[in-house]
Amino acid sequence: MEKEIAKAKVLIEALPYIREFSEKTVVIKYGGHAMVDEALKKSFALDVILLKYIGLNPVIVHGGGPQINLFLEKMQITSNYIQGMRVTDGETMDVVEMVLVGKVNKEIVGLINHCGGKAVGLSGRDGDLVQARKMKIMSKPEVENAPPEL
Q: Which of 14, 49, 126, 147 has the maximal Cβ count within 10 Å?
């Protein structure tokens, strides 16, 4: 019963924000420990579903560094780093895409749907959702002309 009371208090405090952001798209960065701990994964999925139920449009942008590293290790592909930044060659990029799109994204979508939500997964390559150019070493990435309708 204490958990329910605590949740009700949080929702009451959140009412002004719910009103302000109703029908708006909110971008959620999902990564780290929350992606590997089963209880946190389920809690995350339920929170995303709650956001949709109260009128927000959640969009999840996820990481997957540990999962990528695991697959690279299994495939005996060595990553090169310059000043702490991974230099991604073609072979590594194939693994990154396979893991993020084919594994991590599908797990997130599946969990949200299993918990009662309605989710679909997209990749930055889908419909030219993200357009970018090759980075110079140690420069910050710049997104170019992302189609707003997606």
A: 49
